[in-house]
Amino acid sequence: MKKQLLILLTAAALLFFPKVNFGQTAPNLGKASTFSLFTAVGAFTCSSSSTIWGDIGTNKGAFTGSPALVGNKHVVDATSSQAAKDVDSAYTYLVGLTCDSVLTTLGSGQTLTPHVFCLGAATTLNGNLTLDAQGNPNAIFIIKIDGALSTGKFSNIILKNSASLCNVYWQVNGAVSLGDSSIFKGTIVANGAIDLLADAQLLGRGLSKAGAISLSSNMVAIGMKPITTITAGSATTICSGSSVTLTATVTNGVSPFTYSWNPGGSTASSITVSTTTTTSYIATTTAVNGCAPSKDTMIITVSPKTTITTAPTNQTVCSGNSVSFSVTASGSSLTYQWRKGSTNISGATASTFTINPATSTNAASNYNVIVSGTCSSDTSSNVSLTVNPKTTITTSPSSQSVCSGNSVSFSVTATGTALTYQWRKGSVNLVNGANISGATSDTLILKSVSASDAATNYNVVVSGTCSPAATSFNIILNVNTAPHITGGPYDMNACDSSIASFWVTATGTGLTYQWRKGNVNIADGGNISGAKTSIITFNPVTNADTGTKYNVVVRGSCSPNDTSHFVSIGVCRETAIDNNNSNAVKAVKIFPNPFTTSINFILTDAAQNNCTLRIYNVLGSEVMSTTVTKNLSTIETSNLPAGVYIYKIISNNKTLQIGRLVSQK
Fold this sequence. Notes:
Number of helices: 2
Shape: rod-shaped
Distance between the termini: 161 Å
């Protein structure tokens, strides 16, 4: 019961799916597949007016004639021997196939779909026979004839809906005769002679396992796969937007051919393409009624347009340093040429252009680069190069002198970019405030200076965009003071030495002196010397010199002047003192007087060979004490400041002599 149901279902499927083709497989032709005409046993005769595509030959029998042959001829050789075996095998295979349908006639407008068809006796094909593959390019048609096959004059086999002559097989148990001017398609595997009458065409194969083959002004073409080659009318590397013509050339196929291009879908043998990207173009060629299409591929490489993708930028550099401009670009086979304006820069032919070292002569606003490639060129916009000078002091500050309480300024000039200033005392930065201003400018101002502002190491550090900073040399600030009398003068008495001196001590800068009597200036000359120094000396003192209102005016670099009080010159005698004799003779002679760095002492009384010399300042303080033991002694006095001193000669606790000394430095 189940078996009967399966048979019914299978039958129903065949009714509803008529295009399904069960059990139809092509025979394996082996070595015989390359032959258009072949007989295993029999003579081969053909006229020179015949044209054959594919191999021809016989494995046993004579070969006569010289057709126009596109292929090889095999007569009793290893290939023909194997082909004979393969034809016999193919014939046996076809004989063994089960029929799908039994026919009684062929042609006369008949249409067949892919099946195994059987005819039980010799058959003649007249008119047209249509083989409809119903859209299946792999559909197989097998027609088995148990007897001879002949075709009528002008008969034709039409292939429809993807039917291919390479999938049509005729198994003929007898001879085959193709009528005048008939067109036959498919592979004939016969057990008898194959005869092509005048102008008959066989598009396929004629293979016989036993029988002669004869031709007369025929065309025979195996359903060979054509060979397609694409050639380009120009270079296959083009610039974006350019065009090139591609042509498909076909060999080893039976003309005419159909063409199909991808992309584009053109059906012409030549196309002209223009593309912006690299593209593979495929030409598919199919011989009319051919077995299989042929394809070839041509790659059209598109070189992109030369385009600057990252342009050079403006550059700023310090003089003496290195600077570079760079560019990036897309394209192929790129070259570079840097320019200044429209003038090429020699050697600047890389994507990066370096100037080392940069100087002021390199500064410009019109640097650019031309990038060239396989396709066109691109020129950048102009960019600038700014060369900043090194920070350099061109006019250094100079030393200054100023009176205490006044203002003073130091100035500097420098070249460079974005300059800043820092004034210093030594290595210590000065800060604005108190009496300081301009500590971070090109001019430093010190107001109401005092002695604490004086220094020998003022300097300024000038910084700018370009390193290193420039530092000036150290400069001096002298703070001068006004004259000020600190000691003297004192009243004087002219003793027997006949010498009298006034002295004064003072502080201040650039001091000068002018001694006066009252308001009248005293001048050097005669017995007067030192009228313009700190010590004025009268040597000898005259009666005209004695008097009062002597004074000195002290002047300096700074105002105001200072004037001493009045002093006077009186008259006295230098006295030698003796307890028993007030008029004793001098025990010691002293010279020079006034003195500078030393004093000589001569003992006039040899008996007084052990005396003490004591020197007092005008305030009565002892400033020196020494023993005199020789008749002639020299006493060093370089440590005594300028001024008037009193001396005493003492022996055995007695004062022998009193006098006045003047230190004149």
